[in-house]
Design goal:
CATH topology of the largest domain: N-terminal domain of TfIIb
Shape: elongated
Number of helices: 1
Radius of gyration: 28 Å
CATH class of the largest domain: Mainly Beta
Largest sheet: 4 strands, antiparallel
Number of domains: 2
């Protein structure tokens, strides 16, 4: 984005001319484009450090059920059920393997 040096408004690209240029809508300033204009803005990912279920304490308080882990075949998993869809829809079940070496997590929508 370029801004007008006279009135500080954002410059727009003039689509009507064969020569590409920026123009200001509020004053007569024109900026002729001679070289390729490239502006790169690096994106930074947000680091979310909190667990949406309430952290490790929520998993410790979760029910333990006999379901086979899809990764290590261990038969005990923690279960948390949360209503993520609108009211009237079934809850979504979130599982976490109780095997200390695995701790695989997965979800299943209840139908």
């Amino acid at each position: 984005m370029l801004f007008c040096p006279l009135c500080a408004n954002m410059l727009l690209i003039d689509p009507d001319l064969q020569a590409t240029r920026y123009f200001c809508q509020t004053c007569p300033y024109i900026f002729h484009i001679k070289n390729k204009v490239v502006t790169k803005v690096p994106l930074q990912r947000k680091i979310i450090d909190s667990d949406v279920f309430g952290g490790e304490e929520a998993w410790k308080a979760a029910d333990v059920v006999e379901v086979e882990c899809q990764v290590c075949r261990y038969r005990k998993v923690s279960l948390i059920e949360i209503q993520v869809d609108p009211i009237g829809q079934p809850k979504t079940s979130y599982y976490r393997c109780k095997n200390p070496g695995c701790e695989n997590q997965w979800q299943k929508k209840n139908i």
